[in-house]
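Notes from the 1:1 (GR / supervisor)

We went over the backlog. Supervisor wanted to see one worked example end to end before approving the batch request, so GR pasted a single chain during the call. The sequence is below; no edits were made to it. Supervisor asked that the structure be written out right there so they could see what the output format looks like.
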Amino acid sequence: MKSNWFEQQRSNKHRTIVLLGLFLILVTAVGAAFGYAFSVISNAGGQNTTLYGGLIGLVISGFYALIMYNGLSMQSVMSANGARPLEPNEIPVLEHIVTELCLAARIPEPAYISWKLMNAMLLLLGLNLKKLD
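Structure output shown during the call:
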């Protein structure tokens, strides 16, 4: 089944929402299990600690899912890899390579370039940054 990029993007967004929902349920269940285990160990009762553990798990997973779905995960990954915006005409060869790849794949150009990734691409192409300047 062939589909275009926009259909794939819509499908991936739907799958992401389903996975985040499953993540919420899983972490809530784990929190409830920890609450129940705490109540058994401490002889504290049972239902209240299980409920509180589930609520704590729901709050933590909801906060995490909200952060990840709103795109802050991409910013944290990019900053961890030392990525920064590529200035116009800073490295024209790399700029042309990225533009051509994005045009061929019919996807938008990325806003950030990882310098580790850029160095790996240039090394594979047999280019040196000093020769490009």
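Supervisor's comment: The two ends are 45 Å apart (CA to CA).
Batch request approved.
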